[in-house]
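Researcher: Let's do a round of design. I'm pasting the structure tokens now; please hold your answer until I've finished.
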């Protein structure tokens, strides 16, 4: 494109200098020459003008064909749509807020992202594997190719506007670095980390994770509970599932300015007013009351 513009500008200036034509006549003559339209000359050409026209044809026609070929290739091979898609993706990243950043889209990360999306919670996935990155996009999540432990990547996915971060990368070391970087950027961010070992659990907590989850431990406890109390496990799963419309278990924060603050459960009259049952209350010190 720059080559074609340069030749058009050069041809216009050349006709103005050689033939003493006006800028418009010189530009018009250059365009019909380069595009080989074949209209007659704007004015009669001198011998010098004819020589210049021959040179302009030789150089300009080739440049025009090359430029048009490149443009056609961009359109046919999807370069233009891909460019538009990248710009759209960047605008969505710049506008997203109250989202969860899921670091890693492996077996656990994909399930986490899918559950969040089912509850209509915005998700941005950070992943380095191209296939996993493509899978995340296909399942409706925004996805960014990058290392979750790098601060510039976390800034790119909007950590300053995020609701929380979930570190479920492939190794414990990567999770520790991701949590540490996120905590440095956002001291108030809610962070969940995955750990495979007890040592990693300690390190993740020191790095700044608010909660540390061990899939192996949770899986083992779930198996034992299912064996001992299958009906209870079924009830909890039903209550926490988003597919059930008749029964749902939710966590509701009560702000100091709320009308429910400093009231007992009886005084709040929640069951009669809202049709809800309070199962437990967590105090500021994370102590649970049932």
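Researcher: That's everything. Go ahead.
Model: Designed sequence:
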């Amino acid at each position: 494109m720059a080559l074609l513009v340069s030749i058009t500008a050069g041809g216009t200036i050349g006709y103005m200098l050689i033939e003493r034509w006006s800028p418009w006549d010189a530009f018009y003559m250059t365009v019909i020459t380069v595009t080989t339209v074949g209209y007659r000359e704007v004015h009669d050409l001198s011998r010098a003008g004819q020589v210049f026209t021959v040179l302009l044809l030789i150089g300009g026609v080739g440049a025009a064909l090359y430029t048009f070929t490149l443009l056609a290739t961009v359109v046919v091979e999807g370069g233009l749509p891909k460019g538009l898609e990248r710009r759209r993706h960047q605008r969505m990243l710049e506008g997203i807020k109250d989202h969860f950043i899921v670091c890693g889209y492996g077996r656990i990360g994909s399930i986490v992202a899918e559950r969040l999306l089912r509850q209509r919670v915005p998700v941005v996935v950070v992943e380095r594997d191209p296939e996993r990155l493509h899978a995340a996009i296909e399942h409706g999540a925004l996805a960014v190719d990058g290392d979750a432990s790098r601060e510039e990547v976390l800034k790119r996915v909007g950590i300053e506007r995020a609701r929380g971060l979930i570190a479920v990368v492939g190794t414990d070391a990567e999770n520790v670095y991701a949590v540490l970087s996120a905590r440095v950027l956002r001291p108030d961010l809610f962070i969940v980390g995955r750990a495979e070992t007890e040592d990693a659990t300690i390190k993740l907590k020191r790095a700044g994770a608010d909660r540390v989850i061990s899939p192996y431990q949770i899986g083992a406890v779930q198996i034992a509970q299912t064996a001992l109390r299958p009906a209870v496990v079924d009830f909890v799963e039903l209550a926490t599932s988003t597919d059930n419309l008749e029964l749902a278990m939710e966590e509701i924060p009560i702000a100091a300015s709320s009308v429910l603050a400093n009231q007992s459960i009886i005084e709040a009259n929640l069951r009669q007013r809202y049709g809800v049952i309070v199962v437990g209350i967590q105090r500021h010190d994370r102590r649970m009351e049932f």
